[in-house]
Design goal:
Number of helices of chain A: 4
Number of strands of chain A: 12
Helix content of chain A: 10-25%
Shape of chain A: globular
Radius of gyration of chain A: 16 Å
Largest interface: A-B, 60 and 60 residues
Strand content of chain A: 35-45%
Structural class of chain A: mainly beta
Oligomer: homodimer
Amino acid sequence: METMPISKAFTLVEPGPVVLVTTNSGKKSNIMTISWTMVIDFTPRFAITTGPWNHSFAALVKSKECVIAIPTIDLLDTAVGVGTCSGADTDKFAKFGLTPVKGKHVRPPLIKECLANMECKVIDLVEQHNIVVLEGIAAYFDNSRKEKRTIHAIGDGTFVVDGRRFNRREMMKAKIPEGC
Amino acid sequence: METMPISKAFTLVEPGPVVLVTTNSGKKSNIMTISWTMVIDFTPRFAITTGPWNHSFAALVKSKECVIAIPTIDLLDTAVGVGTCSGADTDKFAKFGLTPVKGKHVRPPLIKECLANMECKVIDLVEQHNIVVLEGIAAYFDNSRKEKRTIHAIGDGTFVVDGRRFNRREMMKAKIPEGC
């Protein structure tokens, strides 16, 4: 995994992929699958929706740290599997053959098998709406990986994989943030 | 456009497509292109990130109403065009050949050319993070449309279209909300 400029890290979340979020309770690391994410600033800042119904939530709020990892379509069953069991009784890294990699800034691990990883700090909790606000502080991208297509959850148990890419940089040039 | 059960309406936003958001200032309707959206509840509730830098924001906050319309890949240049000019000096419906259709519950119009439309009420504004919280109250889907592939913005001026769909309903059955 190579370091990715933090100015580009919002592009990992902007297209709306399913993400894996790692947390560390102080005793152990866990992973949750989340589809409810949103960029809120290029700096980058993100909102994710989660709450006490997720076992990871307590560790996220207590430690104020997480890693957002981006799985690709070859990891679809892993992402669904991670999202349908609980860290309360499962070591998800072991169960799904995922490799935790130590980050530089936060205790929750990166996931080696993912296309990209971003170390994040929790900077706010909007309790009324179950929104957790994150700031990305370091990002990594695995350029050596052949499969780069991410996954989008529909929400009804079906998923769509990335198709063809279209370039509209010329039309959008006034709107593209610097460094992108 | 046929009515879509409101219990399924979150599935329009969950995969993270680029959306068009219509507003009405009392005098005229406008459209903005938004990629920063998130489901926050199945009921459905949504968060979108916007602020005073968007001409539509004043009408959105004042009227507390909008329509989320879902464009497909054949409308890519329309979505980019709508997002790169301002309602301050442009009638975007006229400029982009989009047809406003009267909704049942809110004053901002549906967009006839889109795959789906959802009438929404603004239920909260989290000013600190520029997050507007919406409740979807009625949804419509154009089943007669052949092109159903939506668009995902990367954020750097490129876009990805939906590819193949994968079914994991069996694996996820405990997690799929009723009516989906």
